[in-house]
């Protein structure tokens, strides 16, 4: 592998610093409430430097989303390979999404906010389409696991795999939001792991084949 020059290495470090600052600020203040100037200050760089790497705030927002989505995607792939039984693989993907979200709450919130109407109003259609396309990609990967369950007779033949994936994703997202709440406490934090596991069990149970 070709060794990076000092200049190339510095460019990668600056880009990473900008993305990290952007993820934090977009999570804290939303798209509209965050300025490129604030991102540059948190990254310890000039505003002009930020624009050398990202042409607009929208492009910066999208890049922050893509960076986070890549992390989610890698964790979901690892989860599939960590279990042998099909049902365990479906559960593992679900739990991996939750765990990664809790480990990287800033990334989780940026991704979640992509689907809020008040945020989408400030994004170009291209930004929305590109981000949605990536997320749809790993939802389709989950759907393939569900299709295996249908083909094997484990899950109901009338079940739509993509609907199952969307339901699991949104249910997991809601539970992460609940876990990240500081107040009021609706569920004892010590019980959350049980809630995660039982929620996917309920979804799978409701989707099982009757035969």
- Count of DSSP strands: 0
**Cα Rg:** 19 Å
Full CATH superfamily name: Tetracycline Repressor, domain 2
Q: Can you tell me the residue ranges where pLDDT is under 50 for at least 5 consecutive residues?
A: none
- The CATH class turns out to be Mainly Alpha
The tally of structural domains comes to: 1
Terminal CA distance reads 54 Å
Strand content: under 5%
Order of helices and strands: HHHHHHHHHH
CATH topology: Tetracycline Repressor, domain 2
What percentage of residues falls in helices of 4 or more residues?
over 70%
Major sheet size, sense and barrel closure? none
CATH architectural designation: Orthogonal Bundle
Give the mean pLDDT: 89
Count helical runs.
10
How would you sum up the global shape?
A: elongated
Summing up helix and strand content along with how strands pair, one would put the structural category as: mainly alpha
């Amino acid at each position: 592998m070709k060794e990076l020059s000092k200049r190339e290495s510095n460019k990668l470090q600056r880009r990473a610093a900008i993305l990290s600052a952007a993820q934090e600020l977009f999570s804290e203040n939303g798209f509209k409430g965050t300025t490129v100037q604030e991102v540059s200050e948190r990254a310890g760089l000039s505003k002009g430097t930020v624009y050398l790497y990202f042409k607009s705030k929208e492009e910066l927002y999208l890049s922050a989303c893509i960076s986070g989505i890549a992390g989610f995607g890698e964790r979901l792939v690892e989860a599939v390979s960590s279990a042998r039984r099909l049902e365990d693989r479906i559960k593992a993907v679900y739990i991996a999404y939750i765990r990664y979200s809790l480990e990287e709450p800033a990334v989780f919130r940026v991704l979640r906010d992509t689907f809020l109407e008040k945020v989408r109003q400030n994004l170009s259609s291209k930004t929305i389409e590109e981000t949605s396309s990536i997320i749809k990609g790993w939802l389709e990967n989950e759907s393939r696991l569900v299709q295996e369950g249908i083909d094997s007779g484990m899950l109901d033949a009338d079940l739509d795999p993509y609907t199952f994936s969307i339901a699991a994703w949104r249910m997991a997202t809601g539970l992460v939001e609940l876990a990240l709440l500081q107040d009021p406490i609706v569920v004892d934090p010590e019980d959350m792991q049980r809630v995660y596991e039982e929620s996917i069990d309920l979804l799978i149970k409701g989707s099982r084949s009757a035969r």
